[in-house]
Amino acid sequence: MSVEDKHRDFNSLISRYLSGELHSDELSWFQEELRSDPEKQAMLDEYRLIWDSAVPGQSYDLDAEWTLMQKKLPDFKIKSGHSLLFYTYRIAVVLVLGVLLSFSLIYVSRTVGMERVVAENEPLEVVLEDGTVVIVNRYSSLKYSRKYTQEERKVYLSGEAWFDVARDSTMPFVIDAGAALVEVLGTSFNVNAYKDNPTVEITVESGLVALSGKEDMKDLIVMKAGSGGSYNKNQRELKLIPASDPNSISWKTRELFFDASTLREVAELLNKVYDTDIVIMSEELASCPITVTFRDQTLEAILNVLELTLDLQLTREGDEIRLDGEGCVE
Question: Which residues, 6 or more positions from 127, have their beta carbon under 8 angstroms from its beta carbon?
Answer without folding.
Answer: 133, 134
